[in-house]
Amino acid sequence: MYTAFVSASAVTDIYYIACRELRDKKLVMARIKLLLKTVDIAAVTGVEIRRAIDLSWADFEDCVQFTAGERLAVRYIITRDPGGFAGSGIPVLSPDQFLTMITVD
Questions:
Q1: Engineered SS bond to 68: which of 9, 40, 42, 82, CB 3.0-4.6 Å?
Q2: 20: burial class by Cβ within 10 Å (0-12, 13-18, 19+)?
Q3: Is residue 15 within 8 Å of 28, Cβ to Cβ?
Q4: How many CB atoms lie under 10 A from the CB of residue 74?
Q5: How far apart are CA 43 and CA 35, in angstroms?
Q6: DSSP symbol at 29
Q7: Residue 36 contacts residue 47 (beta carbons within 8 Å)
Q8: 9 against 57, higher pLDDT
Q9: 25 or 103: which carries more pLDDT confidence?
Q10: How remote is the C-alpha of 35 from its chain's centroid?
Q11: Is 92 helix (H, G, I), strand (E, B) or coil?
């Protein structure tokens, strides 16, 4: 059994991008509600932001995602941008790799 997380800041990013593309706030909110039935929300607090600043990664947003996952002791980071998490200390998988892994289990 896996618990999937998306950071709180990613939810607002999803909302913004989806509204820009779909131009239908009610539809976007309905889809976010569906998303939140399958994933939990990882908080992004001052602790994660300060740690991300101290780590000084090239991509600050990726680092914030990492620190949120680090605090939750996640087993994997699943991303389409594995290079952004090089050296994170948490194994990084593409969505396809993760789906293959859980299908085999």
A1: 42
A2: exposed
A3: yes
A4: 18
A5: 16
A6: H
A7: no
A8: 57
A9: 25
A10: 13
A11: strand
- Position 2 scores a pLDDT of 86
pLDDT at 105: 55
Within 10 Å of residue 95's Cβ, how many Cβ atoms? 10
Answer whether 71's CB lies under 8 Å from 85's CB.
no
Cα–Cα distance between 24 and 21 in angstroms, integer? 9
Tell me the per-residue pLDDT of 38-88, one tens digit each, with 9 for 90 and over.
999 999 999 999 999 999 999 999 999 999 999 999 999 999 999 999 889
Paired residues of 28 in beta bridges: none
Q: Round to whole Å and give the CA distance between 3 and 48.
A: 20
Name, in order, each residue with C-beta under 8 angstroms of 35's C-beta and a sequence gap of 6 or more: 6, 14
Q: How far apart are the first and last CA of the chain?
A: 10
Give the span between the Cα atoms of 99 and 79, in whole angstroms.
12
Joined together, the tokens standing for residue 87 give 């050296």
